[in-house]
Design brief:
The radius of gyration is 15 Å and the shape is globular. The relative contact order is 0.20. The protein is α/β, with parallel strands linked by helices. Strands 2-3-1-4-5 form a five-stranded mixed beta sheet, sandwiched between helices. It has one domain: 3-Layer(aba) Sandwich (Pyruvate-ferredoxin Oxidoreductase, domain 3), CATH 3.40.920.10.
Amino acid sequence: MRSTAVSANNSVKAVKSVDRVIIRFAGDSGDGMQLTGDRFTSETASFGNDLSTLPNFPAEIRAPAGTLPGVSSFQLHFADHDILTPGDAPDVLVAMNPAALKANVGDLPRGAEIIVNTDEFTRRAMQKVGYES
């Protein structure tokens, strides 16, 4: 699999070729992580990749927004060859808020990519999960 990264100022970044990727989408229950994962899975399959998924629903159905018990995630392992599991440690984490980051960052191996929705990293949201800055 090949990818080309283009930055916000339209400059081309280094291209990295990999044979498999494990990506995890994480956010509050109700943020659409299951739907996002489902759509990403459909697109991945349409390119002929082999895949395995792992939806993860929150511990509490009605947990307050932005808290650890309310984090939902969807993990997708896709490859250009046969795979058998959804993977152990994500290569990429897409975190929609500080709670999603905190709940999942411990699963990341060294060198993993993290993509966050910076608009949700407000002082109050970060305090809810114990981050000072």
